[in-house]
Specification:
Blueprint: E1 12-16, H1 20-36, E2 41-45, E3 60-61, H2 65-73, E4 82-86, E5 88-92, E6 97-101, E7 109-112, H3 114-128, E8 131-133, E9 137-143, E10 146-151, E11 154-158, E12 160-163, H4 169-178, E13 186-194, H5 199-206, E14 209-213, E15 222-227, E16 232-238, H6 243-251, H7 253-256, E17 269-274, E18 282-283, E19 286-288, H8 303-320, H9 325-334, H10 336-339, H11 342-358, H12 361-370, H13 372-383, H14 388-395, H15 398-419
Parallel strand pairs: 1-2, 1-12, 2-8, 5-14, 12-19
Antiparallel strand pairs: 3-7, 4-7, 5-6, 9-10, 10-11, 13-16, 13-17, 14-15, 15-16, 18-19
Helix pairs in contact: 1-3, 1-8, 8-9, 12-13, 12-15
Length: about 425
């Protein structure tokens, strides 16, 4: 086999990070090795112990994730992991609400406890023969001869490496020091939980729906209440979101009216998610996937789906095309569904922030209640069921744009002048 050619002949691959992206890559490599009798050896590095460390992901599985697991990985998610089916969404404003229910069960999302999902997927990787190394990666040295992965527990010589480390700063530092990779810009999140009582109380409060907010607080881009098994998960996101922003969000009347009085939030946890694509996500003998590559839907919808799929694409490219920079260009092109959506996602993010901070989301909600096309577009934006480019292109007609502009600009400005 030539240097940089397709993997085979007992070669070794390191995958850094055991979230969905890393497990997706490791399982794809191992399954292909077994089917093709390649004799690959796959090492999966993870410093966290799932169940002991908190994951700041909201833990919502969007369709068609269950089908992806079943079809591409032969994995059936245990019913015990699914805490609740999400049957719809509510866009909440200070004075109104827009109910947007799924049209069929195929559109349902599933609320899970993320650490349980990660632990289950990791166990499936181990059962398939992937060697899991519970250790932090401290360096990655690449050369024409191969890759040396250095960790707290030793060094490993491998032929290629796949980075699935999310937005972990120390691992990103390693790749930025050793390769042309540059991490994506990120937005900060603050997450907490509220226990209002038994699950039945949550049913009466949220009715298996995610409540989404675009509050008129400049430091918060969006917030959400997500019903889980016995609690409500709360998230706020903003470029520099802090604990104070979470406090301000929970005090909003439109949020407080949902949560019973006397229920206090637990500890706050900080997180982040990417705002766009990373630079140089592939090169000789390496590929970066999932959040670390910025290959996720803007506003972080379908992040688990994106991680699994990009991990699978990177692994398949190394097996079918090779591990050279030229060969891994096929991986980047295969990710066009994600990269092509970035520009449209940035546009939608700008419009959402501008409308919330300078105009009125109430007017959009009022229009959507009587306009099915606007209501469906909002449902697709909030739920993540369709790419942003499809939402924009599918609705970029003069009548649609005119109706939205009339509601946001004309009616919104008229109300503002009337109040003054």
């Amino acid at each position: 086999m030539t240097v940089g050619g397709p993997l085979g002949s007992g070669q070794r691959v390191a995958v850094i990070g055991a979230g969905p992206g890393g497990v997706g890559a490791a399982l794809t490599l191992n399954n292909a090795s077994r089917k093709r009798n390649l004799g690959l050896k796959v090492f999966l590095f993870e410093c966290k112990r799932f169940g002991e460390h908190h994951n700041q992901c909201m833990g919502v599985l969007s369709p068609p994730l269950l089908s992806i697991l079943r079809k591409d990985f032969d994995i059936e998610l245990p019913r015990s992991i699914i805490q609740r089916n999400i049957t719809g969404y509510v866009l909440v404003t200070p004075s109104d609400e827009l109910l947007m229910d799924c049209e069929s069960e195929a559109e349902y999302s599933q609320a899970v406890r993320r650490v349980q999902l990660d632990a289950f997927l990791l166990s499936r990787a181990q059962e398939s023969g992937v060697e899991v190394i519970q250790s932090r990666v401290t360096d990655v040295e690449t050369s024409s001869e191969g890759v040396t992965v250095c960790s707290d527990s030793g060094n490993w010589k491998v032929d290629a490496v796949i980075g699935a480390f999310g937005l972990d700063g120390s691992t990103a530092d390693v790749f930025e020091r050793r390769t042309s990779y540059r991490r994506p810009a990120a937005i900060q999140t603050v997450v907490t939980r509220i226990h209002p009582g038994q699950g039945g109380i949550i049913d009466s409060l949220l009715s298996n729906r995610i409540y989404a907010y675009l509050p008129r607080i400049k430091s918060i881009e969006f917030g959400a209440l997500v019903p889980k098994g016995d609690h409500i998960s709360v998230v706020v996101a903003g470029k520099y979101a802090t604990d104070v922003d979470m406090d301000r969000f929970l005090e909003l009347p439109e949020v407080a009216r949902i949560i019973p009085s006397g229920c206090s939030a637990e500890s706050y946890f900080k997180g982040s998610f990417p705002l766009g694509s990373a630079a140089s996500i592939y090169g000789d003998r390496y590929a970066i996937v999932g959040d670390a590559a910025g290959l996720v839907r803007p506003f972080k919808g379908k992040g688990i789906n994106s991680a699994l799929l990009t991990g699978m694409l990177a692994a398949n490219t190394m097996i079918d095309k090779g591990t050279s920079e030229k060969a891994l260009g096929h991986f980047y092109r295969a990710c066009s569904d994600f990269t092509a959506d970035v520009m449209y996602g940035k546009l939608m993010r700008f419009l959402a922030i501008t409308t919330a901070n300078h105009f009125s989301v109430d007017k959009i909600v009022s229009l959507a209640k009587r306009d099915a096309a606007v209501r469906r577009a909002l449902f697709d934006c909030v739920s993540g069921h369709r790419p942003f480019r499809e939402i924009v292109r599918g609705n970029l007609t003069l009548p649609f744009v005119a109706r939205v502009l009339k509601a946001v600009l004309v009616e919104g400005l008229f109300d503002r002048f009337a109040r003054n």
